[in-house]
Amino acid sequence: MSKELTEALETVAEASNELVKAIANLQSCLQQISKEDPSPEWMTLKEAVPKIGLTIRQMRDRINDGRWKHGKHYINVSDGAPRYRVNCRAIDNIQALPPEKRKYR
Fold first, then answer.
1. What is the β-pairing status of strands 74-76 and 42-44?
2. pTM, full prediction
3. Helices 88-95 and 45-52 meet at what angle, rounded to 10?
4. What is the C-alpha to C-alpha distance for residues 77 and 44, in angstroms, rounded to an integer?
5. CB 69 within 8 A of CB 31
6. 3-state secondary structure of 87
7. How far is CA 48 from the centre of its chain?
8. What is the pLDDT of residues 66-88, one digit of tens each?
């Protein structure tokens, strides 16, 4: 193997190691951020549409058929006809999983 090729491979290996360290650092930072802000991010159904990628009808279906748990995934903030707010963080967490691994309750 030529000297240039050997040096190039060593450079790539060093860069790869640095990338692995940077990814580990990023994961650590993200975990710290999630620990610092554990409060739910409650939004109206209309506000949540672009954030979680479901239509209002799909969200209402999940509420009505029991896939989403009251107090964890949604709350009703009205005294009369239902007016829901959803916890986008909790919903994002379950939607990030493959469908066969999702446990809503």
1. unpaired
2. 0.57
3. 30
4. 10
5. no
6. strand
7. 13
8. 989 999 999 999 888 889 999 99
